[in-house]
Design brief:
Elements lengths: L4 H6 L7 E4 L3 E5 L7 E7 L13 H16 L7 E4 L3 H4 L8 E5 L9
The chain binds adenosine monophosphate (AMP).
């Protein structure tokens, strides 16, 4: 999608602090981190949200990259949280599917 913020990051038109990438996905640091480690995992292909994915493959690829980044960031042993905000009530603000990988501190439950 031409003017989608995260599509522009995928195309390299907007800079991002990349931490990992695969053929399908990109991982980069959130610009407003909410935890010591806050990485966004996105598919290169545009999906507006989780509600638009046709099958498990894209979220599977994102999850495996989250696992890899959690290990490389040194937060796997202590634990971490993966969040996919979806739609208005989910708190989604960027209309390109993304998974938040949050770690480096304990997270409370229930979320806000
Ligand atoms: P959400 O509210 O779930 O849609 O999350 C969108 C996330 O994207 C927020 O945590 C923002 O801080 C983050 N974000 C917005 N613009 C950028 C950017 N240019 N680079 C990195 N992260 C961004």
């Amino acid at each position: 999608m031409t003017d989608c913020l995260f599509c522009r990051i995928v195309r390299g038109e907007i800079p991002a602090a990349k931490v990992a990438e695969t053929d399908e996905c990109l991982a980069f640091r959130d610009i407003a981190p909410q935890a010591p480690v806050h990485v966004l995992i996105i598919p290169r292909k545009h999906f507006g949200s989780l509600d638009e994915v046709p099958d498990a493959s894209v979220v599977g690829a994102m999850s495996m990259l989250a696992q890899q980044v959690a290990r490389s960031e040194g937060i796997a042993a202590a634990g971490y949280r993966c969040v996919i905000n979806t739609g208005a009530h989910g708190g989604q603000t960027v209309g390109h599917l993304h998974m938040h990988l949050l770690g480096g501190r304990a997270h409370g439950w229930p979320p806000g």
